[in-house]
Specification:
By secondary structure, this protein is an alpha+beta fold. It has five helices and five strands; from the N terminus they run E-E-H-E-E-E-H-H-H-H. The chain folds into two domains: 4-77, Beta-grasp domain (Ubiquitin-like (UB roll)), CATH 3.10.20; 86-172, [2Fe-2S]-binding domain (DNA polymerase, domain 1, Orthogonal Bundle). The radius of gyration is 16 Å and the shape is globular.
């Protein structure tokens, strides 16, 4: 088993204790505090990160050793060359945050959601399960992000930001 994990593009040794959660590796060992510890039970989504660029997971429920040899992206790994990721910029433009605590998890989850849409993965509200692609609607966004809670109630801004960023990304043919 590989003794390293790639975090935001940098190869990192796994902690010697196999009981360390991925969330604690990020926050306590690597001092990457963008990923938040909300409920520590997988119920709020504040700790959502991306694995292998497109699969969203709850890092509080994952052991770091489970992701040995794989690539994990936290919110810190999204910005490139000093520029915000387009989804981060959309959150600003659409007031998709208030206190900001849930925002990193919301953004990582939305990127995972966009990857699901590209793969044609249906959700509970997808009307045509046999379709090759899933139409992006506010109901699709709300359903797919329902595991990410916002105590401030900024959901309208979040949905607008995600819809805008994903629609623009689809138009460009990018991720």
């Amino acid at each position: 088993m590989p003794a390293t994990i790639t975090i935001n593009g940098a190869e990192t040794p796994l902690p010697p204790d196999p009981r360390v959660s991925l969330l604690d590796l990020l926050r306590e060992h690597l001092h990457l505090t963008g990923t938040k510890k909300g409920c520590d039970q997988g119920a709020c989504g504040a700790c959502t990160v991306l694995v292998d660029g497109e699969h969203r997971i709850l890092s509080c429920l994952a052991l770091a050793v489970q992701y040995a040899g794989r690539s994990v992206t936290s919110v810190e790994g999204l910005a490139a060359a000093g520029a915000l990721h387009p989804l981060q910029q959309a959150f600003i433009e659409h007031d998709g945050f208030q206190c900001g605590y849930c925002t990193p998890g919301q953004i990582c989850s939305a990127l995972g959601m966009a990857a699901e849409l590209r793969r044609g993965v249906p959700s509970y509200v997808t009307a045509d399960l046999a379709a090759d692609s899933v139409a992006l609607s506010h109901d699709e966004v709300r359903e797919r992000l329902s595991g990410n809670l916002c105590r401030c109630g900024a959901y309208n801004g979040i949905v607008a930001a995600v819809t805008d960023a994903v629609t623009e990304s689809r138009a460009r043919g990018a991720s």
